[in-house]
């Protein structure tokens, strides 16, 4: 009897071991189901990417990793399959050169946001009171209205246009605009969105002349009164759209994820609200703010998951 019990125990252990061994490939396959989103650390892209990550993880139960890169590497990552998707393709102008380079190697799901704009921006703020005793608005302390007029005031601007990271599409367009409008007495200062916003804040506080690379949507337009300089030769293009791009094969491998990304679409006002919430904590907790957006907009979230 003891020998028989030993044989049964061994057989039972063998069966358990066989089942566990069979489950290993299944578990490994499940663990590999990670959606990777490439993004650039710009305010609007941080907001949209964290929101997509939150919906994937909290509503769909899909693990999601977000990967910060430069603009050129973002496009390359999706085109080569290192990332599954991005929600930050500015078209047709800002990222047009990247689209032409990679369009045959990725899938365009169309706009997730419409009504964007890029260009050169200056404060539209008056010195002292906004209005005179007559009730008329006082003139802004920066009187330039157009990009070609910048060269007349190069000394006031210290010959600088404050930019962001060098690979950004708006930087390429700014270099082009400087050539088209003959701004030979200006230098384009490379940096980051954070450094650009910090210099803009300092200049407004001290009422110094400053011109920066700017785009809508961005939280700085909610915080300060700013204006785009006229671009008579349309170097920066008109209104643009932000598209969602995914790698080839995603539809077949992750159909639910593909459908959600295809449905993902919102308004500049909705994105603006999320950006302001993120900015309130100096950009430190974007995922938590994305969860807050989900709580405030359940019907919008559900529409993406249909």
Keywords, please?
D-Maltodextrin-Binding Protein, domain 2; alpha/beta; two-stranded parallel ribbon; 306 residues; disordered N terminus; 2 domains; 9 strands; five-stranded antiparallel β-sheet; 45% helix
Report on this structure.
- 45% of the residues lie in helices and 19% in strands.
- The protein is α/β, with parallel strands linked by helices.
- It folds into two domains: 34-116 and 240-304, D-Maltodextrin-Binding Protein, domain 2 (3-Layer(aba) Sandwich), CATH 3.40.190.10; 118-228, D-Maltodextrin-Binding Protein, domain 2.
- Strands 3, 4, 7, 8 and 9 form a five-stranded antiparallel β-sheet that branches. A two-stranded parallel sheet has the order 1-2. Strands 5-6 form a two-stranded parallel ribbon.
- α2 links the parallel β1 and β2.
- The termini are far apart.
Strand-pairing-aware structural class? alpha/beta
Major pleated sheet: 5 strands, antiparallel
Instruction: Give the CATH class of the largest domain.
Output: Alpha Beta
Percent of residues in beta strands? 15-25%
Can you tell me the CATH superfamily of the largest domain?
Periplasmic binding protein-like II
Please give the CATH architecture of the largest domain: 3-Layer(aba) Sandwich
How many separate structural domains?
2
| Low-confidence segments | 1-31
CATH topology (fold) name of the largest domain? D-Maltodextrin-Binding Protein, domain 2
Sketch the topology as an H/E string, one letter per element: HEHEHEHEEHEHEHEEHHHHH
Give the overall shape. globular
Total beta-strand segments: 9
């Amino acid at each position: 009897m003891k020998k028989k019990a030993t044989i049964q125990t061994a057989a039972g252990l063998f069966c358990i071991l066989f089942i566990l061994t069979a489950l290993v490939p299944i578990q490994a396959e499940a663990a590999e189901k990670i959606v990777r989103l490439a993004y650039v650390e710009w305010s609007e892209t941080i907001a949209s990417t964290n929101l997509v990550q939150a919906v994937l993880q909290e509503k769909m139960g899909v693990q999601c990793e977000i990967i910060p890169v430069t603009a050129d590497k973002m496009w390359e990552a999706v085109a080569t399959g290192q990332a599954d998707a991005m929600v930050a393709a500015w078209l047709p102008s800002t990222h047009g050169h990247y689209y032409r380079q990679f369009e045959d190697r990725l899938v365009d799901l169309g706009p997730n946001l419409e009504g964007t704009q890029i260009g050169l921006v200056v404060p539209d703020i008056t010195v002292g009171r906004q209005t005179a005793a007559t009730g008329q608005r006082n003139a802004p302390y920066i009187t330039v209205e157009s990009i070609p007029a910048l060269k007349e005031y190069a000394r006031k601007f210290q010959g600088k246009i404050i930019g962001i990271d060098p690979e950004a599409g708006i930087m390429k367009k700014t270099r082009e605009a400087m050539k088209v409008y003959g701004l030979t007495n200006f230098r384009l200062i490379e940096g980051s969105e954070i450094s650009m916003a910090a210099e803009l804040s300092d200049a407004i506080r001290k009422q110094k002349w400053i011109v920066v690379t700017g785009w809508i949507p961005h939280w700085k337009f909610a915080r300060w009164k700013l204006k785009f300089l006229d671009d008579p030769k349309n170097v920066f293009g008109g209104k643009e759209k932000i598209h969602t791009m995914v790698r080839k094969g995603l539809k077949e491998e992750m159909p639910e994820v593909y459908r959600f990304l295809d449905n993902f679409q919102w308004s500049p006002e909705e994105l603006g609200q999320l950006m302001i919430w993120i900015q309130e904590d100096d950009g430190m907790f974007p995922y938590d703010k994305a969860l807050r957006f989900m709580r405030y907009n359940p019907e919008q979230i559900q529409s993406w998951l249909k």
